Prior knowledge:
Helix content is 33%, strand content 23%. The protein is of the alpha+beta class and 183 residues long. α1 packs parallel to α3 (161-182).
Amino acid sequence: MSDTTHVIIDFHVLSIYDPKILIVIDNSKWLDIEAEEAIIEIVFPGSTKSITRTFIKNSANTFNSNDLLAGCEHEPCTDCNDLVYVDLPDGVYTITVKGTPDTFQATKYHLKTDRFQMKLDDILTQIGFDYHIDKAEDRKKINEVEFLMKVANAHIRREDVGKAKKFFDLAVNRLDKLEKCFN
Length: 183
């Protein structure tokens, strides 16, 4: 008798602030389906189409724009030879890991904010080199942007994708306005 009754699919997305990659780390208990193939389905922000790839169990699975066909210059982007290495978009990703049989699966959401963080870092370093009391309003705006991002991340951890997207979009909008002040 096989022991599949306690299979636990568990994975985590590692945030490393590199907009070109997505790292998914497996922490599953595969038991008797350990030797079977697993797949990962990744849905980009704003899309309903999933990209399916092989998932390596008990390992860190790294994906870039080429792996996820995000750098294709032509549509449709299947087996495209024109792939270029590009930043993956910021936003809410839907990630599903499936074992074989696919009755063993788990879906999680990840808010990728790498490009957002790079823009914010540019502003922070600019204001940090020129710390004056008269920059208090700019620091207040930066704190507001950071707070909105914390709220978005809190909602994504609670799997409230709608609210996470709402607060993320608001943070992006405020950051874009702030960025114009520093350029």
